[in-house]
Amino acid sequence: MSETALHQAVTGGQDKEYLSFVLGDEHYALDITTVKEIRGYEQVTKIANAPAFIKGVINLRGDIVPIVDLRIKFNVGEATYNDFTIVIMLNIQERIVGIVVDGVSDVIRLSEEQVLPPPEFGVAFDSRYLHGLADVDEKMVILVNIESLITSEELGLVAPESVKDDA
Amino acid sequence: MSIDIEQFHGVFFDESDEHLDDMEQLLMSLNVESPDPEELNSIFRAAHSIKGGSGIFGFDALMNLTHVMENLLDKARNNEIAVTADIVNVLLETLDVLKDTLNAYRDETAIPQENIDDRIKILNGVINEQSTDAELSENGALPEISANTQSEGNPDESFGFFDDEPTSAGANSDDGFGFFDNEPIKEKLSYNEQAKSERNEDDGFGFFDDEIPHNSVASQTDASGSTTTETIETETGEEEQVFGFFEDVPSARHINTTLETASSNHSQSPGKQPSSAATTDLDKTTNTSAASAPAKPVAKPSSKKSTSRESASIRVDTTKIDAMVNLVGELVITQSMLSMIGQEVEGQVGERLQLAIDELQRNTREIQESVMSMRMLPLTATFNRFPRLVRDLAGKLGKQVELVLQGGSTEIDKSLIEKIVDPLTHLVRNSIDHGIEMPDKRVAAGKPEKGTVILSAEQKGGSIIISIIDDGGGLHRDKILDKARSNGLAVSDDMPDAEVWQLIFQPGFSTAEAITDVSGRGVGMDVVRRNIESIGGRIDIESSAGEGSAFFIHLPLTLAIVDGMCVSVGKQIFVIPLLNIIESFQPTKQQLKTLGNDTVLYIRDQYWPLVPLYDFMEVEDAALSPTEGIVVLLESSKKRFGILVDALVGQQQVVIKSLEEHYRKVAGIAGATIMGDGKVALIIDADSIATTYTSSQIKELLS
């Protein structure tokens, strides 16, 4: 953590921290408070009749946790699995979900002013699941509203009736 | 039919403890300025529950006090009395007395009768003082009697044994009921007893009427003894007053206990009192009291006893136990991972490691078993509500029915017990209403006039079988088939019996000629089956016309663990609950027939649908031809069918993990488990497969 970051953390500035990750060639970021842990990709147990982007379930220390491959879901990059494939375990509304990404890059700190409204189209993500865009080191980072994405009907991870409507 | 009512005492004590705690908390948080009516209602209900329970079990001292307390609370919740801080204090102190009384009953020690009487007086005083009702005429006698008690209740300094019980004395003066400052020791016993009896009558304890005179007489007789005996007589007199109006036996027993407890507290006591001591024999009571004043030490053994009881059973939040079950499941998995690794270690170290792992395996298995047993409760409590139900129902219907209970000590998971009560009740009612015939009909059929319903439970392997068997008329095959036809179900006359019986579980299915208030609306049986299936069980019926019918409920021992057969399909492992498996075999070509696009099995002179698991579960690299794999015949409550797997891996107990916790329900899958290598295996839900499977060929045709 840089000194300014440390200073901001201590003084409790309005900045929010994001975990940035890579899908194909695009840079994304999500609210770091939803991240439970980051781990390597491991063999999943396939689940019948599930869409292709739901890879299956794994055993996360006794919990049966679904794994979603966002690359398949949003058709970015190539869904290859090797020793460097990363799974970000998220903790959302007391549920644990793993998302497969090509790589995790950094923790970035952004103030509200740095977050720009998303364009209507042009990114793989539906604008409903976008929080905004930010320019970090000359790169565009897409800020994902991960909570609304994971609990969305489209992903079908959560049975509709159990979705808490606090979105 | 006699039921041993004492077995429910434990439950009553536990519940009453909870009610008292609730009341205490509610009273503490009660806003005196503007009391929440709902809170007052809750307090009232809690008091009412204790009163009801204590009335049933004959804990009359408890009942009397809660009754008066309830009166006060009733007035409070009806706004007839304004709740003040003083009243709350009085109520809280009453709770303390109630707790003492409850403990006294639990430990079978002397009831703090003085305290109870004081409390009743105080509460009545509050009611009278505050009541806007003009009931003074009725209760007007009270102050007079109280005054009597005061004037006659000479405090005898030599009886200093009340020092340990300051609650009432101290509280009384606070509340301004000054005349209680002196403990009302019953010197003038006869007078006091009469006063008490009068007061009790005034308070509306009408049921004392018959017994009070007897008590007074007895007390008066006792009072004629020497002064030194008075204390013990007071005890006995009160005990009789409390228990007198029930049978003589418990009262005698109780007095005996009191005497024994009292006497055994003194080194110089004459050993165990013979049970005849209970008969208020003057000589013997003189002996006892001569040993020394008995009342004070009673408090000591009661506290000792209650601590030992506390350790005998602890009420634990079930979520804590569930968490422990989960953790132990993890431990089992870790252990099996360790033993797999251990097998790879060679040499002397490997041997030693293996020994240690074996030890670990034994210990984990024992931990697992004991954790599982924590959730297990005997079915007795569930079964024991049925004699009453059967008696009432038989009486209402004019039938004669004898209920036989068997295997009540069979233990089953607590969560299952809660869910099995309704289906069981329904089935027992059905057996009596539809099964057992009227007495004249039974005699005409050459059967004994009195019908028999057997309710039994037994453990068979990993499942519990609860059966409801009656010797009534049996199910009417023709009626059921007719009804099925009129309901538009596909049936044929040559259906096997077992399938015909299963029809009664269809929604809206009732063959009862008339709808009674007992049964016949046709909403029952499908709910029964759904309830049973929701807890992983199934229900079978056997019936023989004219001889009776039997319902067998198969239940898993626990919801947390299932006995399963692990099978492999491709690279994946699935677990099939043993409960569903009939048999498994490698099919020959002759046993396989094609029916349109589907393959069916012909075995045991029956055609069975065949579900290839690789198709249903979308698994790649599996054995596609049935002759290369293994067919497992399954039986669910809905259908019987075979599933095709690659190979059997082995039988094992698995811990069921919920898929829904982090994902959602998946058709055909009951849950997941974690195998020894840490991988996830899915547990097959036979019922769900039976209802949801359509082969991929059919899917293609449809699309």
TrEMBL record, chain A:
Keywords: Cytoplasm. It is found in: Cytoplasm. InterPro entries: CheW (IPR039315), CheW-like_dom_sf (IPR036061), CheW-lke_dom (IPR002545). It comes from Alteromonas gracilis. Residues 15-155 form the CheW-like domain. CDD domains: CheW. This is Chemotaxis protein CheW. PANTHER family: CHEMOTAXIS PROTEIN CHEW (PTHR22617:SF45), CHEMOTAXIS SENSOR HISTIDINE KINASE-RELATED (PTHR22617). The lineage of its organism: Bacteria, Pseudomonadati, Pseudomonadota, Gammaproteobacteria, Alteromonadales.
TrEMBL record, chain B:
Pfam families: CheW, H-kinase_dim, HATPase_c, Hpt. Keywords: ATP-binding, Chemotaxis, Kinase, Nucleotide-binding, Phosphoprotein, Transferase, Two-component regulatory system. Residues 145-239, 260-313 are annotated as: Disordered. Residues 351-559 form the Histidine kinase domain. Coiled coil: none annotated. PROSITE patterns: CHEW, HIS_KIN, HPT. Its EC number is 2.7.13.3. Residues 561-695 form the CheW-like domain. Involved in the transmission of sensory signals from the chemoreceptors to the flagellar motors. CheA is autophosphorylated; it can transfer its phosphate group to either CheB or CheY. This is Chemotaxis protein CheA. It comes from Alteromonas gracilis.
